[in-house]
Design goal:
Length: about 240
Amino acid sequence: MENKDTINSSKKKPSLSEEDVRDYLMMNPNFFDLNKDLLALLKPERQKRTDGVVDFQSILLDRLQNEVSTLHNRQESMIQASRSNMTTQMRIHAAVLCLLEAETFDHLCHIVCNDWVDILQVDSVIICFEEEAKSRLGDNSNIRLLKKGVIDAFMGHETAAILRGNVKAAEEIYGPATPLIKAEALIKIEKTSHYPLGILAFGSRDEAFFTPGQGTELLRFLAGAFQGQLKSILIRTIT
């Protein structure tokens, strides 16, 4: 019977010699075309020139390795950005589906200000309307009332969405949560015959969670879904 050492040694992969590697590369000349990342790891011996001649081969190899390293980093960044976008999109879709479950105005506000916090992985979601909302929508603890003109002062007349990082949050919007908020997304709720001008405010303690360079399409889509559901509930309530 073979002992264990003999069995284990028979399972070990045979070591490759330089000649084996050389033969493999000669038989597969496109190997580095398919494995460009390895070029950045190669460190061939470079003899110092003493004759004053510029070593173009060394310069080109250095440049090629730098280009490969840069392309690899860009590829990794694109992959991470793509994954992040997919995650954000899934959260937005889940938030919209949750919104469709609302049957009353109070339930709708509860979903936005409570359930959305967990779904969207933010620290605060606030619904703000101008003061006249109190006479139209009634009292609701999840709605903050702002003086007329404050929303335009924050966002301007034409701006539909603002994303800011490393921000000093406005107490008028976030109330007791103000010291916690370091980044925010403000999405305008356009005035209609059913409710006044308002904003949806998303706040995060992570100062890099929202930045001006990010796209606002998904958040504006989410705000549009909220407005559609709000209008539908108010119409049902009136009739």
